[in-house]
Design goal:
The structure is a single chain. The chain is 46% helix and 14% strand. By secondary structure, it is of the alpha/beta class. The protein has a single domain, classed as 3-Layer(aba) Sandwich (Rossmann fold). The longest helix has 29 residues. 46% of the residues are buried.
């Protein structure tokens, strides 16, 4: 009994120190990567987005939807510069990512996120746009195209996560975070300290066989996902994905917008033979582009190839709109 009390007090002290360390690290990350865009409230949810104007537009407006663990800076860091001035480009933080509010547990579903993106377009006065989605963002993009065909001028789906995969398993720590009580304790104490230790190794896994650009951590601001609430929402997004794609993939045949699917042949995060090949099969007239010696993050090592496909898709989607 006399030993139990000091052990218990020591345990409580360790937890308290981890909570304080998490709060301190969270403030440091937010100071390093503050919001750089604007805010709009859609259906009661405050969304953060980067709005890149066009002074000489020759391409259609574009909405860029980042993947899991990302935020608006991720695709902005790779693709905004090469197309600057040629198209209005909107890079939102998906609900619960970056500096966007979550808006409730139902926002883990890609089709619910797609509704908020449509609402953001209304707020910004955009009737139609090309929707560019990377990884889990592609699941939101396809959900948008199914729900809002008249507002979808075209689709660019990069390393898409859009179809059910064998087993439906996700990484162990997502399962842990999605566990009631335990997940909350983990994110408030260990997620950001442990995540900071393995951050660079995790990037290597996402980029392999390509090298991680030296400035990628600064350009992408992906350390923001390590913050407790962001980490929980991201885990919920990943946990919801299998059920969503199992249901919605049956409706991809309804998509009529011009579509290009871009995948790396060495992507081990999202298997091309399941997702990209499935989209090419399900969306009539879609174009499948396979990039050699490329992993899950083509926007950085293969920027020129991505830009070329976006330009080509814009021409096709403009022709399609003219025929309507």
């Amino acid at each position: 009994m006399t030993l139990a009390k000091p052990v218990f007090l020591g345990f409580v002290l360790v937890i308290l120190l981890l909570v304080l360390a998490t709060q301190w690290l969270t403030r440091r990350v937010e100071a390093r990567f503050p919001p750089i865009g604007k805010f709009a409230t859609v259906d009661g949810v405050r969304l953060h987005y980067i709005d890149v104007p066009a002074d000489r537009p020759d391409l259609a407006p574009m909405i860029y939807l980042h993947g899991a663990s990302g935020n608006a800076r991720d695709l902005h860091g790779a693709l905004a510069g090469p197309l600057s001035g040629r198209a209005r480009m909107i890079f939102p933080d998906r609900p619960g990512a970056g500096y966007s509010q979550r808006g409730g547990p139902e926002m883990a579903a890609p089709d619910r996120q797609a509704q908020l993106i449509a609402g953001l377009m209304r707020e910004l006065g955009l009737e139609r746009a090309v929707i560019v989605g990377h990884s889990l963002g592609a699941a939101v993009a396809t959900a948008f195209a199914v729900a809002f065909p008249a507002r979808t001028q075209g689709l660019v789906l990069i390393s898409p996560a859009t179809h059910p995969w064998p087993g439906g398993d996700i990484t162990w720590y997502y399962d842990l975070v999605n566990t009631p009580v335990i997940g909350r304790i983990f994110t408030e104490t260990l997620a950001i300290p442990l995540g900071s230790l393995v951050y660079r190794e995790a990037l290597k896994g996402v980029f392999t066989p390509n090298k991680v650009p030296r400035d990628y951590p600064e350009r992408s601001g992906t350390r923001l996902v390590l913050r407790p609430a962001n980490f929980r929402d991201n885990a919920a997004d990943v946990g919801e994905l299998f059920e969503h794609v199992t249901r919605l993939s049956k409706r991809y045949g309804e998509i009529e917008a011009p579509t290009v699917i871009i995948t790396g042949d060495a992507d081990t995060v999202v298997l091309p033979e399941i997702h990209s090949a499935g989209l090419a099969r399900d969306i009539a007239g879609s174009r499948l582009v396979t990039l050699p010696r490329t992993g899950h993050m083509p926007p950085y090592p293969k920027t020129d190839a991505i830009i070329a496909e976006i330009e080509g898709l814009n021409v096709t989607s403009s022709q399609s709109a003219a025929l309507r």
